[in-house]
Design goal:
Length: 179
């Protein structure tokens, strides 16, 4: 099986989560990991059987150009101590999905969000999965949120939780394949 883990990341947390998910998926097939702004992302998705797609939660959902611009502003504020990822703030998951011609038949979605009540933070992962379904991809497992602190630091144990979720995605993918 060919698996593509594609992600959007502003400050590195979503990238770290995506890499941990890829580690969990490694026993289940050939895994490619790429940022949505990396030209290899489309190629990986086109050849994959499973797409695992994720991004940060901005304003209760997927990022938008205005929220990515805000992240750029935050990164220039020395009081925030945030370093922008090399491929940010370019294209986001929303635009990548809209502009990608071929979406794999199976998918899973994840996000990173602040560790506060879901009602207050929202979550991008449900919106991502909905957009994947509209493109004809079947969800293999429920979307997952991985948590960061209000200071934009990955929560304790979140990388391990991401690896475990990646393993769960792989097992779920196998069940779909065996049907």
């Amino acid at each position: 099986m060919s698996i593509a883990v594609i992600y959007e990341s502003m400050f590195g947390n979503t990238r770290k989560i995506a890499l941990a998910i890829a580690e969990g998926l490694a026993p289940f097939g050939m895994v490619s990991t790429a940022n949505v702004n990396d030209p290899r992302a489309r190629k990986a998705a086109h050849s994959a059987n499973l797409l695992v797609l994720g991004g940060p939660t901005h304003v209760h959902g997927m990022s938008r150009p205005s929220s990515r611009q805000e992240a750029l502003t935050w990164s220039s504020d020395p009081r925030k101590d945030l370093e922008l990822e090399p491929l940010a703030p370019g294209t986001g998951v929303r635009e990548w999905l809209r502009d990608t011609e071929l979406i794999p038949p199976l998918s899973a979605a994840f996000d990173t969000r602040v560790d506060i009540a879901h009602l207050l933070s929202g979550a991008a992962c449900g919106h991502i999965q909905h957009a994947l379904a509209k493109r004809g991809s079947r969800e293999v497992i429920a979307p997952e949120s991985l948590l960061v602190t209000k200071d934009n630091i990955l929560g304790v144990g979140e990388l391990a939780r991401a690896r475990d979720w990646g393993t769960s995605v792989g097992r779920a993918m196998e069940r779909f394949r065996d049907r």
